[in-house]
Structures are given as C-alpha cells and as structure tokens.
Write a structure and sequence with these properties.
Helix 1 (19-30) runs antiparallel to helix 3 (57-66). The chain is α/β, with parallel strands linked by helices and 267 residues long. The chain has helices at 19-30, 43-53, 57-66, 89-95, 129-135, 190-207, 233-250, and strands at residues 7-11, 37-41, 74-75, 81-84, 108-114, 119-123, 140-142, 145-147, 150-154, 172-177, 215-218. The protein has 7 helices and 11 strands. The chain has a single domain (7-257), classed as Cytosolic phospholipase A2 catalytic domain. The longest helix has 18 residues, at 190-207. The strands form 2 sheets. Strands 1, 2, 5, 6, 8, 9, 10 and 11 form an 8-stranded mixed β-sheet that branches. This is Patatin. Residues 9-167 form the PNPLA domain. A motif (GXSXG) lies at residues 40-44. Keywords: Hydrolase, Lipid degradation, Lipid metabolism. It holds the Pfam family Patatin.
C-alpha cells in the first residue's frame, strides 16, 4: 500500500451527467484509491466540493435525488441571464456549512471563466460556495456570479477538464469525462443539433487535455442524457461505477495508486 502518493482527480462539467462522477469515485474508493486533491468544473466542481467535504459518493447521490434543485431557482430580471443562481446559495450552505476551502477534508480547486478578461480562473482558498456557483454558471441561463471585480461564468467555457491545478503537484492524475457522445445516424431537429454541437465543443476542450492524464475514465454514451435529466440520476451513477470497474480490470496498473484513505463508503 502506497499511502504517500499524491493522486489528483479532475472532474469535467456536464450538467446532470456529472452525477456519473460519483459512480467513478465510488468505484475508485472501493478499489482503495482515494484522491488527495480534486479539481472540477461546473458539475464536477459541485460533485468535487461535496466529496471533498467528506460525503461519500452514495450519500451525495441520495442528497441529489431527494433535493428538488430546481425549486430553488428564481427568475432574473436581467439581460445577463434568465435565472438567478444566487437563489440556491442557501441550498449549498445546508451541506457546505463552513463555506471555506481550507475546511475541506480533501483539497479542492474549481475552475471558472472570467467573462470580461476571457480567461480561465482557479479557486482553491477562501470562500467556497461562490466559486462553486460561478464554476457551474451556465452562460445565458444564469446571471454571472460576481466575485471581487470579476464577472464569472461556467468554467467549462474555457476549461472543461481542469488538470492544470494538478499538474506538477500530483504524482498521478486521473481525468474523468461525463460527456461521451454515441454515434447518431439521424439529427431530427434543431434542438438536438445545437445540443450535440455544444457537447462536441465541450469534448474537444476535454480531449485536448487528455494527454496530461495518467488515466482517463469516460463512461460511454453519456452525451445522450439531457443536461437537466435529473430523473436519470441513478442510471448516471451506475454508468460511472460500471465503467470504472471495467477500466480498472483493463488497466490494472491503476491499482498501484492504492492509498490508505479515510473516507467512509457507507450507503
């Protein structure tokens, strides 16, 4: 057992598809692999924050299934977005009570996009909840989150697999993408055309960073799920879990990353 390895896990954005990250983490944990640093964008930032707080993957899934996230959203009277993300701050405070990166059990970095400067920005210290909300602030849908003099939107716009914060600080990096697109023979309408085009762009963003990962886990076909398809939460978790078990079997060298870990695997 190698408890001194620094193991980084980078989690992509992808809306509700990010629930599959929990299945991946569950599979890794069952194999004795526990990240010592997590980075995430958008849905990956939310999953990462909850996991780094100390909740087990199955506990997080239960919270998601039992919480009606959408009832917390409020209309925004603004040209900047149709919904206010700030209205769900209370929900985050329910589960991230300390609201401080330094109080997390596992170090976390979240990526967001500074819309004015056109640059990716990373948060790993200070206030926690505002950066997590900024990281998952889908442009056009939500008003930008203001932190200091920065107007911040979804980190996936510029970096949908934030491996950079892990590069040089971790011995091994595991990248996890939740947006794999299956082939589609017939694009039936404009909505599907736009959705597929957006996911293709997100994946190009991810695949350009894949070479920086020592291991790369991507459950097949998740791009077919809608970004708000919360009813498929259990299916998404299971997809990530099953793919991780398969990946470990086909890439047994990943088991060399086993570490002691202290997280609970309680259901």
């Amino acid at each position: 057992m190698k408890s001194n390895l620094k193991i980084g896990v980078a989690l992509s954005g992808g809306g509700v598809r990010g629930i599959s990250h929990l299945g991946v983490l569950q599979g890794l944990n069952e194999a004795g692999i526990f990240p010592t640093h997590v980075s995430g964008t958008s849905a990956g930032a939310i999953a990462g924050a909850m996991y780094c707080e100390g909740y087990s993957p199955t506990e997080i899934l239960k919270i998601i299934v039992e919480t009606n996230y959408f009832k917390f959203l409020r209309p925004a009277i603004s040209w900047k977005g149709i919904l206010k993300m700030s209205s769900i701050e209370g929900l985050f405070r329910t589960y991230l009570k300390h609201n401080d990166f330094s109080q997390l059990k596992t170090p976390l970095t979240v990526a967001a996009t500074d819309i004015k400067k056109g640059k990716a920005v990373y948060f790993s210290e200070g206030e926690l909840i505002a950066p997590v909300m900024a990281s998952s602030c889908i442009p056009g849908m939500f008003e930008p989150i203001v932190i200091g003099n920065r107007f911040l939107i979804d980190g996936g716009v510029l970096n949908n697999l934030p491996v950079e914060p892990l590069d040089g600080t971790c011995d091994f990096v595991i990248g996890v993408n939740c947006n794999h697109l299956p082939e589609e023979s017939d694009i039936k309408n404009m909505k599907r055309l736009i959705e597929r085009s957006v996911i293709m762009s997100m994946n190009y963003n991810v695949y350009s960073r894949q070479a920086k990962c020592d291991y790369f886990i991507e459950a097949p076909g998740l791009g077919k799920f809608g970004v708000f398809d919360i009813k498929k939460a259990s299916d998404l978790f299971q997809a990530g879990y099953v793919e991780t078990l398969r990946y470990i079997e086909e890439n047994p060298s990943i088991l060399e990353l086993k570490n002691s870990g202290e997280k609970s695997l309680s259901a």
